[in-house]
């Protein structure tokens, strides 16, 4: 019998009524003859509340206890979903991550799935169970501690189960009806895509489009999982939503496929560091050891043997970064005159595999931003993306201007 994976995000299980509606959708697939693995998120807002409680109780918290607390939201929805299915006479039971077990690394708060042995669940399917409801976002470390997979991690749970069970498809039910050219909440001209290439979705996700967790796209690409994003709020056909697929399966596409943004970025500059071999290693080694996720890096040209070094990182890591740099200065590993922090920046990026063969995309991007009077603070590029750091207050304007400039409201 073929296995189907269906994942319901926070808004799709936000109330008992929403859980009921999701369960009806699952029952339809069971009636079609599928064995279904349902992955659930916590009810909308629950994980944020739990994260808040952890921070209020212990600002420099023990990451293992952070995971113990924040994983709990999914346990509630998994049990409720199983109960609702049973009420509908669909044989179902719930599993928490450790029960499967979803084996992960010990990187608490950002663990990676290592393995999902399918035997336990397969045995239950063989006994006549039709739906396995799995608490998303969580697993268990080799030390036997509960782990979580990072925010948005239920997407990754879903794709990992689809790979482990060689599922026919992995359907991600959410509050939008597919993947758009940009976040439809900030750009009303955003256009829904029927298909998007894995590489493009991977870049969009890692640059801030939270519709799919980056790691879930990586796994889907690696294990050739048929991944679809669709709405849990509308009636669906088999062609609904957006399919994430290989580039070869897409007939026509724009040079730029989409625009992504990341709101909560910070820019830090070390003023007047010695321009000598090993200086970058000393600075970024210290930041890495402190667990700071450095993103963009710019080193100025040097004058009289001294230079400025700028980097960006998530806003909530600024304190950690400042401490790491100050500690390196106290140890005598680096010297600098000043550390300037700007916590009011956002990153806006354009992504498209067409950039491999088209020149001039960067120039068009900078022209569109300049026409709106938006100053660019830092630029980085790769083969299929260009990112800029700008003042956060211009972020939405920048996304809309770029969406217009690259004609993303119209199909190629
Ligand atoms: P869920 O709780 O179902 O996991 P998320 O909030 O994590 O849902 O992801 C869905 C949200 O992603 C949408 O509501 C939308 O605001 C946002 N989003 C950002 N970029 C895009 C995009 N390119 N296409 C669709 N949605 C996007
Ligand atoms: N509940 C978790 C979060 O809000 C995981 C998820 O929903 O994917 O990040
Ligand atoms: Mg999500």
From TrEMBL:
Pathway the protein contributes to: Amino-acid biosynthesis; L-threonine biosynthesis; L-threonine from L-aspartate: step 1/5; Amino-acid biosynthesis; L-methionine biosynthesis via de novo pathway; L-homoserine from L-aspartate: step 1/3; Amino-acid biosynthesis; L-lysine biosynthesis via DAP pathway; (S)-tetrahydrodipicolinate from L-aspartate: step 1/4
Chemical reaction(s) catalysed: L-aspartate + ATP = 4-phospho-L-aspartate + ADP
CDD domains linked to this entry: AAK_AKii-LysC-BS, ACT_AK-LysC-DapG-like_2, ACT_AKii-LysC-BS-like_1
GO biological process per UniProt: homoserine biosynthetic process; lysine biosynthetic process via diaminopimelate; threonine biosynthetic process
GO cellular component entries: cytosol
Top-level EC class: transferase
Binding positions for substrate per the UniProt entry: 47, 74
Amino acids binding ATP: 7-10, 174-175, 180, 185, 210-211
Pfam families cross-referenced by the UniProt entry: AA_kinase, ACT, ACT_9
Name of the protein in question: Aspartokinase
Key word Nucleotide-binding present: yes
Molecular function terms, GO-annotated: aspartate kinase activity; ATP binding
Domain spans labelled ACT: 268-353
UniProt family annotation: Belongs to the aspartokinase family.
Alphabetized UniProt keyword annotations: Amino-acid biosynthesis, ATP-binding, Kinase, Lysine biosynthesis, Nucleotide-binding, Transferase
PROSITE patterns reported in the protein's UniProt record: ACT, ASPARTOKINASE
NCBIfam families membership: asp_kin_monofn (TIGR00656), asp_kinases (TIGR00657), PRK06635.1-2 (NF005154), PRK06635.1-4 (NF005155)
Source domain of life: Bacteria
Protein source organism: Limimaricola cinnabarinus
Enzyme Commission code: 2.7.2.4
InterPro entries: AceGlu_kinase-like_sf, ACT-like_dom_sf, ACT_Aspartokinase, ACT_dom, AKii-LysC-BS, Asp/Glu/Uridylate_kinase, Asp_kin_monofn, Asp_kinase
